[in-house]
Every structure is written in structure tokens, then in C-alpha cells.
Amino acid sequence: MDRPCVRVPREAGEETRQELAAAGLLDEDHRIVVDDGTLYLPVTDPDAVDDSYEVVYRDVPVHDQQETPADRLDFDPSYERLGDVAILDEDDPDRARDIADAILESDLPVRAVLDRASKVKGDLRVRDWDVVAATADADEPVTETVHREYGFEYLLDLSTVYFSPRLATERHRVTEQVESGEQAVDMFAGVGPFAIPMAARGATVVGVDLNPAAVEYLRENARRNGVSDTLTAIHGDVRDVAAEYADWADRIVMNLPHSADEFLDAAITLAGDDCTLHYYDIQHEDDPFGPGEAAIREAATGYDVEVMTRHVVRSYAPHELNVCLDVRLSR
What we know:
Blueprint: E1 2-9, H1 13-22, E2 33-35, E3 38-42, E4 54-59, H2 69-72, E5 80-82, E6 85-88, H3 93-105, E7 112-116, E8 129-134, E9 144-149, E10 152-157, H4 168-175, E11 183-186, H5 195-200, E12 204-209, H6 212-224, E13 231-235, H7 238-241, E14 249-254, H8 264-270, E15 271-284, H9 290-299, E16 304-317, E17 320-330
Parallel strand pairs: 6-7, 11-12, 11-14, 12-13, 14-15
Antiparallel strand pairs: 1-3, 1-4, 2-3, 5-6, 7-8, 9-10, 15-17, 16-17
């Protein structure tokens, strides 16, 4: 069966393999194929692969030594892995149970299988989950796991916080821009996948989140990754916190794509004389960047606004795109 693969020249293969593995995107259930000087590296989620890579579909063999869920079913099931938890999106509970049993009986290092039971909802951006199956020795809560991404690890509980492994490449794109000595604010920090890498690169970071569970995990993850001394985690609405850090930030991350525009006044309060803003938005494909750029220009009174990058992160829904504007604000 054809699988999504990143196609690169053979000489770029090892660097690309490491990059995909660090992002948690390398499909370790299937073999890497070499064909006439070209490498085909199977990936788990083609939508999450950086646009700089070419994704193609081709037949790649399954690793002989590892039994996969497909080996126990008459079809190739769709699922995501987050740490040692597998995530399904199935409407049929019988089908979900069949897939879950096959996953647990395979050689995958999975201790629990969850099925999405609702969309992301509420101000805290969490969803309901059905625990379809778990191993006999699975720890409680089965919704808690450790996700590893680009050399960092994040403890999180899917039932109490929002987390998307599909944004790994995008988070890496942004955090690689951070320079030592910067002062950065993550306005919607969650468990820390932007804030912690920024702190690890030498920035002093403030991470704010409305979800108290996320803030507790953010503090724990800062400890796990050795950045507690340079990362301050704050529970609250960033609009109430902004005045405490007025004119402070050299860099601001606004990853709340459905409603970031409602927080632009707070972002402008936070921004220093020269500040880079990473603004996330979801818009129709006909004009994915225009509404966000207009909103930023309207809010940023007293600043020159330079859009440095207009970047499509991924397709979000039919005819809708999740995008990022990297903007320089100069007072």
C-alpha cells in the first residue's frame, strides 16, 4: 500500500531522517527506501511535514521484525501516536475497538488507545475522550503521557490540556529564530512546546495560560527540560497580565488561531521598541493572510509594521488554512 514519504537526494537522507525523527514524524513501522540515488522516508502525518520537503506517495515495505496493527486487521487503520498513547477518530465504536485491540496486540509501544469524543471546546481548548482500550499494567490516568519533540519532552494529560503533535515542525521553525538574551512571551503557552525551546536557546520567557492544569504541566516541563530558572509560568488571562510586562517583549507568540485578533491590544502592550510577533490565524484560502495583517496594522498604533513571512502551516478544513504571520514591530 502506498504511504506518504519525504523524497530527498540520498546525500541529504541522514539529516532529513534526524529532522523527521526529532519532530516525531518518521514512520518507524515502514522501511526507508533507496531508489536511483533518491531516498524515500515514510512519515506518519504528511500535513505536518515542513513545506520545504517534498511529500510523495509510494509503496514502502513494512519492517519485517515488527508486527503492525494492519497485520491483525484486513485494512490499514488511521491513528496518531502521542507518547505511548494512540489516538483514533472513529465514529463506529466497534471499529474503534477492533483497531484498539490490534494496536495493543501489535509491537507498537502503546499502553492506551483513546478515541476523540468531542471537538476542542471552551476557553480551555480541551476535548472529551473515550478510553477504548488499555494494557493491564497501564498507569492512571491513561490520558497522561510524555511526548518527545526535537530533543524536548512534555508531560501532559490529554483530558485536561490541549496539545497538537502536528505542529511540531512549525514550533521548531519559530523557536529556531530565537537568540540568546531575548525576552519572549508565549501568550497561550499550554504545556510549553514554544516556551521551553525558546528558554533553552537562552531567552528569558514568560508563558501565560488560562488553563490551570496546563500551567502546572508547563512548570513541570520547565523543570524536566532544565529551564525553570529562565521561564516564568503564569496562570491567568494574558489581557490581565500584559500590563505587568508592558514594553518588555522582544518576541511574542500568539498561537490561538481562532481568536488571536481579540488579544492584539494585549500583544501591543507587551511589545518592546523592536518586537517580532508570530501571529496564527485560520482563514479562507482565497485570502488567508489579509485579515490578520489588517488586524495587526490596526492594533499596532505607534509602530511600523513589517510582515517578514507569510507562512501556511497546514490545511485546517476544506478551503481553510492555518497560517502564521511573522511580523516585525518597530516603534
